[in-house]
Design a protein that fits this description.
The complex is a heterodimer of chains A (715) and B (170).
Chain A lengths: L22 H5 L15 E7 L5 E7 L1 H4 L4 E5 L1 H5 L27 E2 L5 E7 L2 H8 L3 E6 L25 E8 L3 H7 L2 E13 L7 E7 L4 E6 L4 H12 L6 E4 L15 H13 L3 E4 L2 H7 L2 E13 L5 E11 L12 H9 L8 E9 L14 H18 L4 H8 L8 E2 L5 E2 L4 H12 L1 H13 L3 E11 L19 E7 L5 E5 L8 H13 L6 E4 L17 H28 L6 E4 L2 E4 L5 E4 H10 L13 E6 L9 E11 L6 E11 L6 H21 L18
Parallel strand pairs in A: 1-12, 10-11, 14-15, 20-21
Antiparallel strand pairs in A: 1-5, 2-4, 2-6, 3-5, 7-15, 8-13, 9-10, 9-12, 13-14, 16-17, 18-26, 19-20, 19-25, 22-23, 23-24, 26-27
Chain B lengths: L3 E8 L2 E8 L4 H8 L18 E4 L2 E4 L12 E3 L1 H6 L4 H10 L8 H13 L6 H7 L11 H15 L13
Helix pairs in contact in B: 3-6
The chains are: A alpha+beta (715), B alpha+beta (170).
The structure holds FE2/S2 (inorganic) cluster (2 copies).
Chain lengths: 715, 170
Amino acid sequence: MTAITALDRPNSYIGRSVPRPNAKRLLAGRGRYVTDIVLPRMLHGAYVRSPYAHARIVAINADEARAAPGVRLVAIGEDLAKLCTPWVGTMDHFKGMKSPPQLPLPIDKVVWAGQAVVAVVADTRALAEDAAELVAIEFDELPAVVDIDAARGPDAPVISPELGSNLCFHGKIDTGGVEDVFAGAAHVVEEEFLFGRHTAVTMEPRAIIADYDASEPKLTVHHATQTPYQFQDIYARHYGIPEACVRVIAPDIGGSFGMKLHMYHEDMAVVGLSIMLERPVKYVADRMESFVSDIHARDHRVRARMAADADGNILAMDVEDVTGIGAFSAYPRTSVVEGNQVYRLMGAPYTFKNYRADLQVVFQNKVQMSQYRAVGHPVACTVTERLVDMIAAKTSRDVFDIRSGNLIPDDAYPCASPTGYKFESLSHHACLAKIRALMDYDGLRAEQAALRKQGIHRGIGIASFVEITNPSPAFYGVGGVRISSQDGAIIKITPSGDVRCLISITELGQGTETIVGQIVAEHLGVDRERIKVITGDTETTPHGGATYACRGAGIGGETALQAAKKLKANVLAVAAAILQDEPDRLDMEAGWIVDAASRQQRIELAEIARIAYFRSDTLPPGTQSQLSVAHHYAPEGYPFAFTNGVQACHLELDVETGFVKLLKMWVVEDCGRVINPLLVDEQIRGGVVQGLGAAFFEECTYGDSGQLTNGSLAD
Amino acid sequence: MSDLVDVSLIVNGSEVSHRVPARTTLADFLRQTLELTGTHTGCEMGVCGACLVVLDGQVVHACLSFAVQASGSAVETVEGLTERAVIADLQEAFHQRNALQCGFCTPGMLMTAYSLLSQPGVPSREDIRDALSGNYCRCTGYEAIVDAIETTARNRAAGGDAAAREEIDA
Ligand code: FES
Ligand code: FES
């Protein structure tokens, strides 16, 4: 490529495949994960867990454990309940939703197999585990509620009797007219879908170090999380420590995928243990503990019908979703969000208007279920696309053809789905056309037919989807949950003309710091190498939503952009005072103040900084240089920024063995302006591979008594 | 149960001697006793490959052996290979290709690649995928990792301008 493009301008980084500066450290083995961190006087926690899915705690005898070598503390539910107020994982706009209060460790009963009951803190993890084995807990086993139907039966044991039933939430959507449409439809297809439980399996398990210093008081938590501000708020409120005295640091994180933004009982307990001991306490889940205590996701049974006219035009959908979420709703994001997104994303790419759905969110004696990557999307997409394909089969229409006939036209926006989602601008047809060409659909079909004659079975599947991204305050904020939808950035020029950007979105390896650096460099007019981006510390960065729901670039990136523009205006104001020129006749480029028209270099940014910081006496009277800016940005208007795309899959089936060989996957996603194609491609590939894992290989399976039966990486 | 044993070995070229509980794994010994935290543990049961190190020339799971079993041996970790600059081209290829996200699996990936590339011949993509079958990565789609290893293998075979960078298509 030799042609000069817009990308060849100085500091034009947006749209470029630049590698991640912070990846070099990780490649050298110099990452600093919470699992790596050691603090002076640090102790280690281990937990005694319940072997039963549902049981009363009759007695706990920890005398022997207390006397074991190296043990500093053995704590039970009552001990922590004296320090920590209970939490309830509900959200206001899920009307009628209920969930029992939670404490770090249970007091009278356990509600899932693997629940932590007793905490042991010792000089080393090994000693803590030795002592944990000496704790004797007498349980009185109760009947376990495992199955989602049995849980709702009239004779079902109720896990939290004070709630009256095992129903956490019952939601309904009905546009009206659905019965009539189905009664009069030429074609009705119907199927039941079962989605097993999945879990994130981050390569670095959950890890936390709480360090309480009573003298200030000050709580510092090194926490492997994607949302440090959320946890700062939670620790402050539930332990009664002023928020300004709570610092949460999220250093390098070894994978998260939504799993590391929920409140876990063990993590909350670690904070209390540190308060009790006034020493740092570390807890790292081992892989077995991860399987029984990290959130799971999915676990839906969907029964759905779709009606179409004689030509295959989709007329209506009727959906019933029952989902099992464990014994309580997760905190603070709840366990209803996934079901809510399942029943609102159903049919979202299509034009039909009549929709009815029933969502039941059910308590059961399993580990808590909540948001994990792609919350609800795989369920809604699988159901919708399968039914669309069934309509195609009934009406003898090609799978592309049926979709182009039913997808919302690209010029129909803004519009709304029958489930209430407002779409600003989507591009289903453009994506469909693109993937068709990309995969050579017609060629593949011809090849498929030819090979079938030789007994080779190849399959071609496509799926259109709508994706929820960048939630506004209409979601958590309005629901009464203290999770921010805005982000904040502080950008400052150092005395030598370098730039530091402290921003509230967090880095999980997806490239947050890189894209923020690209944006600031381009909009400020400095070289990328001179910008240092800092994330993941509530003490230094402004409060923000951090990283979830594909909001990093959309909200965090916009925050950085606006902050950079503000700072540039400040720099140009000082430059104009020094150069006796007008700010709007100046610009910045490659770390220089240049003449806006001729691009001639006038004065270096480093020189502006030197004068501003050390020789303000030489500036005209009344000039106060503002070489740092703090700026916040929250999305307005639409509750979400919906995006869309289409995926295609080509595979070969061995009809004798049932063995499936994946030949190729294609993805066309309209993700808006791409800041760094290298990073976007890698995200998509990683997402596809994780999705293939879920589709083909992964499931957390439970026995009748509520025991997880495959809780290790070898199963 | 926590009897102490003497462990003496060569780690990244230097002799080290420590008295540790007999049950200390090589992974914990490297990470905790020696503070070489580049070696990671993702499963502690020999499945994920995050803990791979070179022990007397062989790539082994540090989570599966006790430190005392490595006594008298020579161990090299990602820190050692980095210092000796023997994987500098591989690290550069990973960087340019963005063959990592969170980086937790990466030291293990580098170990596998280091060992594969130490054998004669240029491995095919199939060979590379085979070699990586004991390395879990939850973030990437593996594709970029295979690309980075393949690029390095080719560059080395081509007479190894080690710093040769793969052009990235912007
Ligand atoms: S930690 Fe050794 S293989 Fe996973
Ligand atoms: S980069 Fe995160 S596990 Fe491989």
